[in-house]
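Pilot study result, target chain (78 residues):
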Amino acid sequence: MKFPRLKLSDRITWSVMLWIFLNLLWLKFLEVFVPVWVGTIIATLAAVAFILFGRGPEEGPGDEDAPAPKTEGGKGRG
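Predicted structure:
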């Protein structure tokens, strides 16, 4: 499975959702056996790893955020 390339802001958003999801799972299934603070540390480490090591956008001419090339005379076709 190939994951899409994400910008930093997208990786931060997804890591916050991952953090919330992991904490809720911990509360539902593991809180009886292991304290919540352990789950919070694990969720925080997972979120930081996702931000740092997630696939970033490719650098190059195909970048969507790059400005459009200028045409001669500053006008479009016609």
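One observation from the pilot: The radius of gyration is 20 Å. A full batch analysis is planned for the follow-on phase.
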